[in-house]
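ok here's DUF3117 domain-containing protein:
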Amino acid sequence: MAAMKPRTGDGPMEVTKEGRGIVMRVPVDGGGRLVVEMNADEATALLDELKAVVG
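and the structure:
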C-alpha cells in the first residue's frame, strides 16, 4: 500500500530545485496544489512562453 501523506494547506506558489529536476507547486481554486516537475530545458521553455503572454 502506498504511503498516505496528509494534505497540507494551499500555501504560496513555490519553485524548488530537487535533485536534477525543478518542482513547481501552484495553489489551485478549490484547494490543493498543482505539482509539476520539469527539467531545465522545459523550465526555460515555460519561462519564454510566460514572457510572451505577460510582457
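+1. Residues 40-54 form the longest helix (15 residues).
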